[in-house]
Amino acid sequence: MDQDCLFCKIINKEMDTEFLYEDDVLVVFRDIYPQAPTHLLIVPKKHIRSINDLAEGDPEIVAAMTMAAKEMAKKEGVDKSGYKIFFNVEKGGGQIIFHLHMHLVGGWEKEEK
Asked: Which of 24, 52, 89, 99 is the right S-S partner for 7, CB 3.0 to 4.6 Å?
């Protein structure tokens, strides 16, 4: 854990954030500045600064994040209409919180359930 990291504080429940999903590896919550009707953040509990800092055992974490994105897209009703999942990497790539996280955005043409 990085003591100054916003996402570490959220993961450790030092901030009032509603988790849409949580397991031993990651948490999922809504972005407070959404760029789409559905904008979720999928965040590993392990503090990894960015994609550039992935270590030997970390690919399993990225796989878990991807599977969580698939399940959350279905739960949010954007799986059929379409969605994007992506990482911003380093400042030049748009990363502003330096704790690895995946964005799930969609819902522009959300199908009715």
From this structure: 99
